[in-house]
Specification:
mainly beta; 6 strands; five-stranded mixed beta barrel; single chain; OB fold (Dihydrolipoamide Acetyltransferase, E2P)
């Protein structure tokens, strides 16, 4: 028997407002970028920051998320890595790596945010309520 795991957990700030659209099958697709920053000491002992940008794709988000996924907001994102290949405008083969969001939790905002945070639902699943106290740290 073979086992595998494709799980990503990120905490970061949105780099741009989310953009939503609908597929031909009427599935809502929302895309945004998330920046995570790692701090470390270089060889000279000076602190350096290294920022990594992640492309996030989420399906069937509630209006709450569509309205609150704004540039600069801090979110916890849990999901999986997805790789896709495409040809650019010059015909060159390219590979894009995206995070497919399965859970979003806002880490700042209004006082009632914990009651509105929910799991990103696949089309057949009902949304689940998450609470900031459920974070694993």
């Amino acid at each position: 028997m073979s086992f595998s795991l494709n799980k990503v957990m990120l905490i970061g700030n949105l780099g741009r407002d989310a953009e939503s659209r609908f597929t031909t099958n009427n599935v809502s697709v929302t895309n945004f970028s998330l920046a995570t920053t790692r701090s470390y000491k270089d060889k000279e002992g000076n602190w350096q920051n290294e920022t990594t940008w992640h492309n996030i794709t989420a399906f069937n988000l509630s209006d709450f998320f569509k309205d609150n996924l704004k540039k600069g907001k801090k979110f916890f994102i849990e999901g999986r890595i997805s790789k896709r290949e495409y040809n650019d405008k010059d015909g060159n083969k390219r590979i894009a790596v995206d995070i497919i969001a399965e859970r979003l939790i806002p880490l700042e905002g209004t006082a009632d945010v914990s009651t509105k945070a929910n799991t990103v639902a696949e089309p057949a699943e009902p949304p689940k309520v998450e609470n900031n106290e459920d974070l694993p740290f």
